[in-house]
């Protein structure tokens, strides 16, 4: 993580908010803190909050950069706030949003990890289970991942960047509960195209990082996905059929493109 980005955020947050970097993506950096944004000045040793910061991008024109950062930050916050209203869906709670500085604070989901055993997202979880990839725990977790995606699509939302790093696992009642995160490219959408693309992106992510076990993994995810639509009678069946048909079309397009190089 560049020192420049750290300096920027420390200047903005002031030293009263200590931060620990946990991830750096193309667009944002993610930190952990134990200070709540409405209670700055006090720190609670056991509290954990996520700060997601979108630093200015030097390669963009400054005014376009400011507009884009504000747009993505607001859009992620809005969609998180909307999705939190849906009881069947698991997303982290939004705590605060500062679109002008490209910063959001959200609930940290790894807090119940037994002594921080080193993974919080689905990608790391699958790596950790790679020596016993077909165990019942993995199956159960991936079916639940599929159910979360099914719920999202059933409610007519799309994720826009559905990779295995954008699913966080939280330990609840002795089981892993998947939460969808990173909604910067998410939207309300009734389009089967958007849903087909979500499913395709996730399928590719699983194939490219866990290729030996990908068939089983993808099958379990799709099992959970179908479960959700199956609970909604004829309407659910029709929507599922349309979505799966488009998923297949997106897949074919992807294959054609990779053949052309
Ligand atoms: N609320 C959260 N709780 C726990 N871990 C999180 C949370 N949000 C993000 N992370 C971790 O940080 C990583 C990056 O977060 P993300 O929001 O996807 O940002 P990016 O834009 O960099 O992809 C995730 O893959 C996950 O490991
Ligand atoms: Mg991400």
UniProtKB/TrEMBL annotation:
<comment type="subunit">
    <text>Component of the EKC/KEOPS complex composed of at least BUD32, CGI121, GON7, KAE1 and PCC1; the whole complex dimerizes.</text>
</comment>
<keyword id="KW-0539">Nucleus</keyword>
<dbReference type="GO" id="GO:0000781">
    <property type="term" value="C:chromosome, telomeric region"/>
</dbReference>
<dbReference type="InterPro" id="IPR000719">
    <property type="entry name" value="Prot_kinase_dom"/>
</dbReference>
<keyword id="KW-0547">Nucleotide-binding</keyword>
<keyword id="KW-0418">Kinase</keyword>
<dbReference type="InterPro" id="IPR011009">
    <property type="entry name" value="Kinase-like_dom_sf"/>
</dbReference>
<dbReference type="GO" id="GO:0000722">
    <property type="term" value="P:telomere maintenance via recombination"/>
</dbReference>
<keyword id="KW-0158">Chromosome</keyword>
<keyword id="KW-0819">tRNA processing</keyword>
<dbReference type="GO" id="GO:0005524">
    <property type="term" value="F:ATP binding"/>
</dbReference>
<feature type="domain" description="Protein kinase">
    <location>
        <begin position="16"/>
        <end position="261"/>
    </location>
</feature>
<keyword id="KW-0067">ATP-binding</keyword>
<dbReference type="GO" id="GO:0016887">
    <property type="term" value="F:ATP hydrolysis activity"/>
</dbReference>
<protein>
    <recommendedName>
        <fullName>EKC/KEOPS complex subunit BUD32</fullName>
        <ecNumber>2.7.11.1</ecNumber>
    </recommendedName>
</protein>
<dbReference type="GO" id="GO:0070525">
    <property type="term" value="P:tRNA threonylcarbamoyladenosine metabolic process"/>
</dbReference>
<keyword id="KW-0963">Cytoplasm</keyword>
<dbReference type="GO" id="GO:0005829">
    <property type="term" value="C:cytosol"/>
</dbReference>
<dbReference type="GO" id="GO:0005634">
    <property type="term" value="C:nucleus"/>
</dbReference>
<keyword id="KW-0804">Transcription</keyword>
<keyword id="KW-0723">Serine/threonine-protein kinase</keyword>
<keyword id="KW-0805">Transcription regulation</keyword>
<dbReference type="GO" id="GO:0000408">
    <property type="term" value="C:EKC/KEOPS complex"/>
</dbReference>
<keyword id="KW-0597">Phosphoprotein</keyword>
<dbReference type="GO" id="GO:0004674">
    <property type="term" value="F:protein serine/threonine kinase activity"/>
</dbReference>
<keyword id="KW-0010">Activator</keyword>
<dbReference type="GO" id="GO:0008033">
    <property type="term" value="P:tRNA processing"/>
</dbReference>
<keyword id="KW-0779">Telomere</keyword>
<dbReference type="Pfam" id="PF06293">
    <property type="entry name" value="Kdo"/>
</dbReference>
<keyword id="KW-0378">Hydrolase</keyword>
<dbReference type="InterPro" id="IPR022495">
    <property type="entry name" value="Bud32"/>
</dbReference>
<keyword id="KW-0808">Transferase</keyword>
<dbReference type="GO" id="GO:0045944">
    <property type="term" value="P:positive regulation of transcription by RNA polymerase II"/>
</dbReference>
<comment type="similarity">
    <text>Belongs to the protein kinase superfamily. BUD32 family.</text>
</comment>
<dbReference type="InterPro" id="IPR008266">
    <property type="entry name" value="Tyr_kinase_AS"/>
</dbReference>
């Amino acid at each position: 993580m560049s020192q420049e980005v750290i300096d920027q955020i420390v200047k903005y947050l002031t030293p009263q908010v200590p931060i620990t970097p946990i991830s750096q993506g193309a667009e944002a950096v993610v930190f952990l803190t134990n200070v709540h944004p409405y209670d700055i000045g006090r720190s609670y040793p056991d509290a954990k909050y996520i700060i997601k910061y979108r630093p200015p991008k030097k390669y963009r024109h400054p005014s376009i950069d400011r507009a884009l950062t504000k747009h993505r930050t607001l859009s992620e916050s809005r969609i998180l706030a909307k999705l939190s209203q849906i009881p069947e869906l698991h997303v982290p709670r939004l705590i605060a949003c500062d679109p002008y500085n490209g910063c959001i604070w959200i609930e940290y989901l790894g807090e119940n990890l037994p002594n921080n055993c080193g993974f919080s997202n689905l990608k790391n979880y699958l790596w950790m289970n790679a020596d016993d990839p077909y165990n019942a725990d993995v199956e159960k977790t991936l079916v639940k991942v599929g159910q979360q995606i099914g719920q999202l699509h059933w409610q007519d939302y799309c994720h826009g960047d559905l990779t295995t790093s954008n699913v966080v696992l939280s330990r609840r009642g002795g089981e892993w509960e998947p939460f969808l995160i990173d909604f910067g490219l998410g939207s309300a959408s009734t389009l089967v195209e958007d849903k087909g693309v979500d499913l395709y992106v996730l399928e590719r992510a699983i194939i490219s990082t866990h290729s030996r076990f990908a068939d089983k993994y993808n099958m379990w995810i799709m099992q959970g996905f179908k479960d959700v639509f199956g609970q909604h009678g004829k309407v659910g069946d029709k929507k599922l059929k349309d979505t799966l048909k488009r998923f297949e079309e997106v897949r074919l397009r992807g294959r054609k493109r990779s053949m052309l190089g």
